[in-house]
Design a protein that fits this description.
Elements lengths: L1 H30 L15 H4 L4 H12 L2 E6 L2 E6 L2 H10 L6 E2 L3 H6 L11 H17 L5 H19 L9 H16 L9 H18 L1 H8 L1 H4 L6 H25 L8 H11 L10 H32 L1 H14 L15 H14 L8 E2 L4 E3 L2 E3 L4 E4 L1 H5 L42 H18 E4 L13 E2 L3 E2 L6 E4 L1
Parallel strand pairs: 2-7
Antiparallel strand pairs: 1-2, 3-4, 4-7, 5-6, 8-11, 9-10
Helix pairs in contact: 7-8, 7-18, 8-14, 9-12, 12-14, 14-16, 14-18
Protein name: unspecific monooxygenase
Cofactor: heme
Organism: Engystomops pustulosus (Tungara frog)
Length: about 500
């Protein structure tokens, strides 16, 4: 009887799926032609066509078959994929309002507690929290000299740690995470951590676990069937514990800030948020509350730690693979800065090769190949196709960063992509690692300063050495899902 019951239930679900699919297709045809795409299976959708170790490659191949705008089903949810530089730019820039909302992504929804904070929210909540975050970060020096000084100081703490290694090989993962995270900690929490602080190491371990989980197969399956995955055991629950763990740590810091708050002298981002919350305590629809402060602070930690530190880790692996690039960087640093003066952000215009190498590292590693999903804010016509309101959109940043129309050797690391024939730095429309349009990364300016100052300071002080042969350095990602997660490796920093 149980077998019959299960079979009947499965049959009913399949019928419902087919009916819904037919209804949706008819609705689309009545208003216009839906984008082309592979035929989905009941319940499973196009599961077998895009899950696995290299999701981006699977989606890219579908783009080659169906064109730069196509439709597929992630589970039972229809998703429109944009798979070329022109298509992504047209959507995010030329039609910014139509594609300006955050799309459906169960893992992101889980992290943001149902759309709290900046990254996962929409509508008035997103507008208010984003505006406040940008204004507050700027007031604390984002894009100004004061934040650059914080990065310079943290870079020197990192140099001291690396010197302790005495030129012996080490895994650079947490060295970079500590330094980068301390920059955002100084802005958000008002102070930096000692590198061996237990709470600090716990936060960094949690962050690393979350980024890995997002890119794992378990994370991909969760995005397809969240209700099922919530109820079965698996490694994804370790990621959820990490998310909850960071939330609890942030709540403790918020509590301490409340106890010592001086409204006339805000120390950091949390203080500013608490002051804003108090100012709007009598506003019924205010978006400034305890839940919002925890999730917005989490967003800043995530964006300000794992993305930049992973770029550094991936970048130095690339420099090990290409020692000629490292040597040319040493020469530029010696010519422009020398070995005695601390690098500063004002050096960047005089260092076109360093600028080009950093841009090429970001392009080549393609950190978030799928981009963070958007959503159609209304029924719209895009490139002769009808896209229903509420449809999730995946603007594939990887297809922009590796568009052969923009880059002459898209699958090869080549800093010349950002240099003219006279060696001067040139911009490229295909450079879009921070996304674009209304949802461009809030911390882009901060990240660009960090990458320049950390790369330059490290290479001013150290030469790089790998304990394995260059031929054995594998630049392909260890995990490739929502993000590209680099392989672990050993690196020795030899004083120059």
């Amino acid at each position: 009887m149980e077998i019959i019951g299960a079979t009947t239930l499965l049959l009913i679900v399949c019928i419902v799926f087919i009916v819904l699919s037919i209804t949706q297709a008819r609705k689309g045809k009545s208003k216009g032609k839906l984008p082309p795409g592979p035929t989905p299976l009941p319940i499973l959708g196009n599961l077998f066509q895009f899950t696995g170790k290299d999701v981006f490659k699977s989606l890219y191949k579908l783009g080659e078959k169906y064109g730069p705008v196509y439709l597929l089903h992630m589970g039972m949810d229809p998703v429109v994929v944009l798979c070329s530089c022109d298509a992504v730019k047209e959507a995010l820039i030329s039609n910014a309002e139509d594609f300006g909302a955050r799309g459906h992504m169960p893992l992101l929804n889980r992290i943001t507690c149902g759309g709290q904070g900046v990254v996962g929210s929409n509508g008035e909540r997103w507008k208010q929290l984003r505006r406040f975050s940008l204004m507050t970060l700027r007031n604390f020096g984002m894009g100004k000299k004061s934040i650059a000084q914080r990065i310079q100081e943290e870079a020197q703490f990192l140099m001291n740690e690396l010197r302790k290694s005495k030129g012996q090989p080490l895994d650079p993962t947490f060295y970079f995470s500590k330094a980068v995270s301390n920059v955002i900690c100084s802005v958000v929490l008002g102070d930096r951590f000692e590198y061996e602080d237990k709470d600090f190491l716990t936060i960094l371990g949690f962050m690393n676990e979350i980024f890995k989980g997002f890119s794992s197969i378990w994370g991909q399956v969760y995005n397809l069937y969240p209700n099922v995955m919530d109820r079965i055991p698996g490694p994804h629950h370790k990621m959820f514990k990490a998310i909850d763990g960071i939330h609890e740590i942030i709540k403790k810091h918020v509590k301490r800030h409340k106890e010592t708050l001086d409204p006339n002298d805000p120390r950091d981002f949390i203080d500013c948020f608490l002051i804003k919350t108090e100012q709007e305590k009598d506003v019924p629809a205010s978006e400034f509350n305890t839940e919002a402060i925890v999730n917005t602070t989490f967003d800043l930690f995530g964006a300000g730690t794992e993305t930049v530190s992973t770029t550094l880790r991936y970048g130095f692996m690339i420099l090990l693979k290409y020692p000629d690039v490292e040597e040319r960087l040493h020469q530029e640093i010696d010519n422009v800065i020398g070995r005695d003066r601390t690098p500063c952000i004002e050096d960047r215009p005089q260092m076109p090769y360093m600028d080009a190498v950093i841009h090429e590292i970001q392009r080549f590693i393609d950190l978030l190949p799928l981009g963070v999903p958007r959503k159609a804010t209304q029924d719209l016509k895009f490139r002769d196709y009808f896209i229903p309101e509420g449809t999730t959109i995946y603007p594939m940043l990887g297809s922009v960063l590796r568009d052969p129309k923009q880059f002459k050797s898209p699958n090869r690391f080549n800093p010349e992509h950002f240099l003219d024939d006279k060696g001067k730095f040139i911009r490229n429309e295909g450079f879009m690692p921070f996304s674009s349009g209304k949802r461009v990364c809030v911390g882009e300016g901060l990240a660009r300063m960090e990458l320049f100052l950390f790369f330059t300071t490290i290479l001013q002080n150290f030469s790089l050495w790998s304990p394995v042969d260059i031929e054995d350095i594998d630049l392909t990602p260890l995990l490739s899902g929502f993000g590209n997660f680099p392989r672990y490796y050993q690196l020795a920093f030899t004083p120059r």
